[in-house]
Structure formats: C-alpha cells, structure tokens
Amino acid sequence: MMPHELLKVVALVSVGAHPVTGRPRRAEQDARAVELGLCLAGKHLHLLHAGDAESEALRGYLGMGLAEMTVLQQPLHADILPALGSYLGATDAQLVLTGSQAEIGEGSGMLPYLLAEQLDWPLVVGLAEVESVKGGVAQVLQALPRGQRRRLQVRLPFVASVDSAAPKARQSAFGPAQRGQLQSQKVAVVEDMLLSEASMQTARPRPKRLKVIKAKTGAERMRAATAKASAGGKVLTDITPEQGAEAIFALLKEEKVLR
Amino acid sequence: MKESFRRDPRNEWIARNRLHPLYSALQTQEASWIGPSGLVRKNPHVSGFIGPNGLKRIDRSGVQQGGGSQRSGTKAAVQLPLRIIEQPSFYIVVVPDMVNGRLSSHDKDLLGLANTLAGDEGAVVAVVFQAHKEGGFDTAGVDRLLHLQGEAFADYSPEQRVTALCALDTQLNPAHWLVPDSRTGGGELGRRLAAKLGERPATRVWQVADGQCIGRAGAGQQDMARTAPRLILAAAECADPVSDTRHEVRAIELNETLFHRVGRLDNLGAVAVDPALTPMAEAEFILSGGNGVKDWELFHQAAETLGATEGASRVAVDDGFMPRARQVGATGTWVTAQVYLAVGISGAVQHLQGIATCDKVVAINQDPACDMVKRADLAVIGDSAAILQALIERVREHRQGGMHDAA
Ligand SMILES: Cc1cc2nc3c(=O)[nH]c(=O)nc-3n(C[C@H](O)[C@H](O)[C@H](O)COP(=O)(O)OP(=O)(O)OC[C@H]3O[C@@H](n4cnc5c(N)ncnc54)[C@H](O)[C@@H]3O)c2cc1C
Questions:
Q1: Higher pLDDT, B349 or A218
Q2: Are A63 and A139 in contact (CB under 8 A)?
C-alpha cells in the first residue's frame, strides 16, 4: 500500500548503554529509528555507524532483520560529524533517520541539527510517522508533548530525528545478528576538541528546590508557615446530576480540554 | 502614585467635641490607660500608622491626635525596587517557551539565571514571538523585550524564528544565549540556533556558576562539567526565579529587516489523535474510574464523548473491568494530566501519589468525606451513573450546538 519502496533511507545508529548496568547495547531511540526505517524501506534500509566496527552491540541492529551495516572507522574521541556528512553527501540518500540523543558521551542531541546544517537539508524533529511521499515531497507526522501530533510537509531529501514517541523497536534476533556483516571503511579523523576541556563525572542527584519564604515581618512568616498547601476545592452537595454535570462541563471548557 | 496626606479639620473638630453624635466613631482605641494594679498599660497596636514603605511609623509631633485613623486607611501595595540599566555593557538573551502565551516556571528559572549572569552591568533581553498574555515580565526580570510578530512567525516556524534570532545575534552580540531545554519548543529552537550560529551549546544544564556549567550527559547517568559556552540550553530549576526586583521591560526592535527564505517545513496543522491511544502518562485529560463505577458501558461511552483517555484505580483493575496498563497510582502509571476526572475513587494514598502532578482534579463521588474530594478542585457529590449520564448529554448538546453555529 505504501509507495515507499523507492525511498532511500539511511538510519544512523550508535552504541547505547543499559540504564542500570551500563552494558553496551543497541540504543533505544536509534532502534526506534531503525524500526521506522524498516517500515519505510524494508530490507533496503541502509544502516550507518561512525565508530568502532568491532563493537558487538552494533549487531543488535542487524538482528532486527538487516544483512549489513556500514561502519566508518573512527576512534573513541573523534568528531564524527565531518565523516558522516561527507559520506551522506556522496550517497543518494533521501531520508536520514537518527535518534534524538546518544546514550553515552555528551548526548547533546546536536547531531541531527548539525548534519542537516552541513548538508543544507531540512530537519524534522520528533518524527512519528511518514504518511506519504509524492513527487519529492513527504507528508509526515511530528510528535508533540502529551501525545499530540502535527502534520508537516517537507521536501526530500531531509534529516529526521526520532524520539520515544516513534513506534517501539522490534526485538533483535540473535542468529541474524551474528550472521550480519559489518562493512568497515577507513575515513579521515577529526579530533573533538571539547572532550579535552570538559570533564565527565557520575551524575549527582539534583537538590530539591526548597520553598524560600521571603517575608519581612513576623506576621507574614507566620501566615506563610500556616497556610494550607492547597486552598481546598469547591464541593457541590445536594444538587441534581444536571447541575453537577454543568459545573464539570464549565471547568472542562475553561481548561480547554474538550475538543 | 504616592498618597498625599491631608488633614480633615472637620473630623478633627468632631474628635475633640465629646458631645458630637459622631464622636465615638472617630475615637481611636485607647493607647494607654491605668490598669487595675495602678500600672500604666499601653496598647502598642493603636499608636502609629503604616508608612509609605509598608513599615509602621509612630509620629510624636502631635499631628496625629483626633481622627488618627485616616493615615492608615490606604495601604499601598508594596512596590519592588525598579532596576534600570541605561547603558548595558553586555546582553544576556533569553528565548522563553511561552507555553499558552505565558512564561512557564521553566522560563522564569531561566530569566533568574540570566539575571545572575547579567549582574549589575548587563541587561537581560527576552525574545517573544507572536501575541502573548503575559503581564509579569517586569517582576520576572526582563530588562529589554523584543516582541516579534507577523505571518512568518505564526504557529510552528522554527526556521523563520532562527533567522530572526541570528539577526539579533549580530545586532547585540550577546554574552550568553539562554534557551529552555524543553520539549515544548525550546529544545528544538535552541539546537537549531546553535547549528546556525556554529556555537557548540551546553545542553541539559542544571548549574551555572563562576563561568563553569554542569549539565546532564548521555542517558542521564553522567554529568558533564565545562566552561560555560555562549549558548546554554538549561534544564528546569537551573536557578531561582527573580523575586525581589522589578525591571523595565523596555521594548527594543530588530534593526535589520528580515528576509525570510521560503520555509522548507510546511505546517499543515494539528492532527486529531485518538485519546485511547495516547500514553496515559502523557495524556492531557483523563477520565478515571474506580470501585464506585457500576455501569462500565456508560463509563466507556463517557470517555469517548468527552474525548478523554481512560484510567482506573487498582480495584477496578483487580476486578477485571479495566486492563492493568490503565491503572493509575503508585504501582501503576504516574500521570501528568491537566484535568483528572475521578469517578467513584476514594483517593487512597497509593492512588493520590499517582496524580500528584495533575493540574485540576475533579471528583464524582457519593461520599463527601473521602480523600479524593479533599484533593479535588471541584467535587460533585452524587451517584456516578446519573452524573456521567448528565455530563454525556451536556457535552453532546454542546457539540450539536457548535455544529448548528458552524452551519
Ligand atoms: C502496595 C499497594 C499498592 C497499591 N497501588 C495502587 C495503585 O497504584 N493505584 C490504585 O488506584 N490503588 C492502589 N492500591 C490500592 C489502594 O490502596 C485502594 O485500595 C484503591 O485505590 C481503592 O480503589 P477505589 O478508590 O476505586 O475503591 P474504594 O476505596 O472502594 O472507593 C470507591 C469509592 O467510590 C464511591 N462510590 C461508591 N458507589 C458510588 C456511586 N454509585 N457513585 C459515586 N461514587 C460511588 C465510594 O464513596 C468510594 O469513595 C494499592 C494498595 C497497596 C496495598
């Protein structure tokens, strides 16, 4: 039904980390990007990773039903953007899918933005679904907070980042994952300058914000200390169901949740 | 405006004239008297008046005799001191999210951070796109306001907005850009701006101090500390909001006329989503049923008519009326709805925990003394079935009314 067979989709994948054990694994959002790519291009989806081809965690993506992945060889502390940009610029990709944030390293979420800037392609943030592609123009749904969606039209080729609102990734099968090929390519390396200056540390729990009472007089302090947390709402007793319904309806209208 | 003090000779005269019918009304309370034991007792509360700065003053010049109450009559609202920056040596620019046209608490935290970064020399500039409903820019700490309006910035227009912000960057050359790292627009706009300006931003920043900033990295297991860059995407509660100064909110303009290239993203508008499919944790409007719901058919019908996402208490789930995934509470989903409509739920602590961050809670219950009614902003006491039925009819009537209007 979907005329996406001709769409050339590249999914950028990275190595993730398990949230508890920290063990390397496929990254959650990248796997969703691959899932979306598989829905659009099936077996023709092109997987691309910049980093270490020896990394076993990458096989997690191959286990989703793909035969091979291209790996641009890069050392750990390299700026991978130039390598990805020049590689993608030379291919005929029409849609580049990425996760919205890496699970290890800086995780600034800048990659899709910088890539789009470098390639001078439009960028769709929070892609949830590609509805149709006609005449070089794609109609897509963008995920908004609170489960809302927005319909956008964008010219091919474009970059799209995928967040946790996209469809959940299928499981990775062990056999195909082992059989898949990691095709590594040697490319130029650019050192990332930031990492020499910045320092990583284990995340500190953030302090809870205290309620500061800036009262000048004793009376004000007393009032602030004894004030109830919530003023307590309206309680409607001894009314007909219709009156009750009317009151609820008025509140729903006021909060603008009735569509 | 300052209240000028006026004497009222007539009142003073009445206050001196013991035989006047209004005499007692104008007497101030006794300030001192001889107590039963012969000691002089004083009532400190009646002497003096509230001065213009809100402090109590005692005037011993004798003017206060008779009708002394007239001074304390009007108590002016306390004015915070106004901060004026005439010639700022640098600028800190904040691009607030303005969710629903108002400064969110996240925006205010950022303005607070901007004010600490600005110190005494710098000015805080806020950039606001499109019409807004905010009246409190002055107390939130905005020295300069750039209000951009026009077709180009309508609704969702990140590319056009970035163009405008780039123009502002050349105009002011701000020392720092602060953008909320939120899902409601700031996270995207800030990153687009960073890519366009070629600045490497610090993201998810939760502390900025002494030129250093700390932000979450990776999947949140690590922090990254670095020297604060020019562009900072800051998390909520990164600093305390401004609370004790007032600011000018002087309007500024972009010098450059903007030339927009044709947007490459065409916004076709919001899409109607099926509320049943929205994840409960994110849903905006939840209709939740508990042990007090007897007619589940009616409950589902109500959810459909209202366009609400369904939720349930644990009892409703255990009894098999609702799927496990719909349970709200400590062992279920923690919801963040704007409106949470609880039908026949008693409000056990385990349940109330799950709805702690909900904005407005409405309860329909038979028991006016139950905890859910205490938590609720609006509680309707009565039988759930009858009220749901009436509510369905009321909403249908409204929808049809709307239809007629449109036709
Ligand atoms: C470890 C633990 C974890 C738990 N976790 C959760 C959790 O995550 N979520 C959760 O919900 N619970 C949880 N519970 C259960 C919780 O303690 C309560 O038992 C449960 O929430 C009560 O559900 P209820 O309010 O629907 O039922 P009830 O307490 O039976 O309340 C029914 C309410 O409906 C009203 N009512 C009755 N008939 C009508 C009518 N015709 N019209 C209108 N109102 C009517 C009654 O006045 C009453 O207020 C947990 C309990 C434990 C021990």
A1: B349
A2: no
Tokens matching residue B147:
């209000």
Residue closest to B234 by CA, chosen among B212, B210, B207: B207
pLDDT of residue B407: 39
Per the domain annotation, does B371 fall within a domain?
Answer: yes
Of B108, B135, B365, B337, the residue nearest B242 (C-alpha): B108
The separation between the first and the last C-alpha atoms of chain B, rounded to the nearest angstrom, is 52
- pTM, entire model: 0.75
Per DSSP bridges, beta strands B32-34 and B40-42 are: antiparallel
B349: CATH: 3.40.50.1220
| B295 lies in the same domain as B173 | no
- Ligand 1 centroid to Cα of residue B372, in Å, is 10
Question: What DSSP string describes B109-128?
Answer: HHHHHHHHHHTTT-EEEEEE
Identify the residue whose C-alpha is closest to ligand 1 atom 53. B350
Instruction: Verify that B117 and B236 share a domain, yes or no.
Output: yes
Give the residue among B115, B60, B61, B73 at the shortest CA–CA distance from B91: B115
Which of B356, B117, B89, B148 is CA-nearest to residue B234?
B117
**Rounded to 5 degrees, what angle do the CA atoms B217, B219, B223 make?**
25
B371 touches chain A (CB under 8 A): no
Say yes or no: B294 and B164 in one domain: no
Residue ranges of B 30-59 with Cβ closer than 8 A to chain A: 54
Q: B135: which residues sit within 8 A by CB, 6+ positions away? A: none
Contact check, Cβ <8 Å, A152/B395: no
Q: Do B210 and B147 share a structural domain?
A: yes
Nearest CA in chain A to B187: A109
Residue B70 lies in a domain: no
Number of domains observed in the structure of chain B: 3
Strands A137-143 and A149-155: what pairing?
antiparallel
Give residue-wise pLDDT tens across range B110-165: 999 999 999 999 999 999 998 888 888 999 999 999 999 888 888 888 999 999 99
**Could you list the residue range(s) of the whole structural domain that residue B338 is in?**
275-406
Is B156's Cβ below 8 Å from some Cβ in A?
A: yes
Cβ of residue B378 closer than 8 Å to a chain A Cβ = yes
Residue B270 placed within a domain: no
- Asked if B203 and A109 come within 8 Å (Cβ–Cβ), the reply is yes
Reported ipTM: 0.87
The answer to whether the Cα torsion of B327, B329, B330, B336 is positive or negative is positive
Q: Which domains does chain A have, with CATH numbers?
A: 9-197 (3.40.50.620), 204-259 (no CATH)
Considering the domain architecture, whether residues B146 and B91 belong to the same structural domain is answered as yes
Burial group, residue A188, by CB count within 10 angstroms (0-12, 13-18, 19+): exposed
User: At A203, is the pLDDT very low, low, confident or very high (cuts 50, 70, 90)?
Assistant: confident
Pocket of ligand 1 (CB under 6 A): B 290-292, 294, 313-316, 327-332, 344-346, 348, 350-351, 354, 364-367, 370, 383-384
**Res B66: pLDDT:** 45
Chain B residues close to A206, C-beta within 8 Å: 206, 237
Note whether B353 contacts A: Cβ–Cβ < 8 A.
no
Q: Is the same domain home to B135 and B194?
A: yes
Residue B105 sits in the same domain as residue B237: yes
Domain-located, residue B102: yes
* For residue B393, pLDDT beyond 70: yes
In this structure, the answer to whether residues B286 and B329 fall within a common structural domain is: yes
- CA B328 to ligand 1 centroid distance, Å: 11
Judge contact between A122 and A152, C-beta under 8 A: no
Q: How many pairs of residues across A and B have Cβ atoms under 8 Å apart?
A: 222
Ligand 1 centroid – CA A230 distance (Å): 22
